[in-house]
Predict the structure.
Amino acid sequence: MQNTVNSQNIIIEDFYTSFIERLSVIYQDEVWGKLENLPTPIISFNNVEILKKAQLYVRHTDRLFDKHIAKLFCRLFEEEGIKATCVADNMGKCLFVKQLKSRFHFFPLEKFAGIPNVPWFKSLKQSLNSKNKEIVDMYIVLIKEDHQGQEYIQSLNAHLCGEAVNKFFSIEHFVKKLFGASLWDVICSAFVNIQNAADQYQWFELSNVCNYSNMKIFENEIKQTLLEFNYKKEFGRTTFQMQENLFSLIESKFIRDGHGLLFSYDDVRKSLMTSEWLFQNQKGANDLDKTYIIAGYVKSVEQLLYHIISSLDPSHSIKLQNRKTKENENVPVNSEELFNATLGNMVYFLKDVQNEDIYIEGIGQDVIQCIISIINRWVYKERNGYFHKHLLCDMKKVRQIRNRTFLLYFLILGGVKIETG
């Protein structure tokens, strides 16, 4: 038994090594050196050179993986004493197992795009409708068997097989059914390693174009993200505590008023949307500094505080330094001088006990200090650090800053009385 396990592990390791070696060749020789110096098209709807290279790369890598995965399972069947043969099909290679009277076709998810207007679909339908029961064609889809994956497989079987026996299965189901759960864990680990190695050869990434047509759609997506964000979980990552009723009070006001108000300030909206656009389209792991992604998040908090304070009753004043005398003076919040206020000036205004009345009823000094402390930590650790000497190369850190910015929106817009007129 142990010898069989060792042999299987060697087969899987060979699969991984061979695939990555061939992927490197495709990247270096077959793709990167082709389609250079193309003439300029009369009209360019997209970067033709990059798109052609991308299509070529995807086509080559799909075929490569299809060929290697068929070969992998051919060897695993043979290790079990079952004769198997790799044969050609419309996808590239499939696996014929005579003892099981089955052909196994391996389908990457990309191949289902465009159904039914894809070349291989006609032959697939013919196979599904074939009355020849001697050989059964099974289709192994290379997707995760999570809830969404299971629904997708069920949909394929329902629409393509009708009331017939299911023909589509996830690769996880296929491996566990024929080789056992323990082998799936080893193969799954190899897939993760392949993904990590392949990321080093990924030289292009598809991203949305920012234009008038899709900005409104994107804005609505951000609004939905802010509504669905788990603020309680993010607040739980801080060192502070808040009574459940107060948290619910802030949450209710944020959803009712503050959420929409955030997008009524044009500069705040643009700063947030800029960072969100960059965050959504620049998720690739690399060693470049990513401070440019968080710049809009950082600016939006300062812009938001300015708008909120300037909208308060003019009886409130904020301490600002007189540029001539260098002395601190109380300036009405509706003064044009407020525009010169620093983030430090505005944070001090928020925590001043004389301004407790700007917060909604039920919020006392303990909650106010909690909000101020979170802002201060965010300012000194994130804002001041990364915009001076520190580099920001970790996307996990970018996500943390994004999440904490969302929490600040929630606490500020949900906790402060805001004049909307």
Remarks:
- Residues 48-79 form the longest helix (32 residues).
- The beta strands are 84-89, 92-97, 102-107, 136-141, 168-170, 317-321, 328-332.
- The chain has a mean pLDDT of 81.
- The two ends are 77 Å apart (CA to CA).
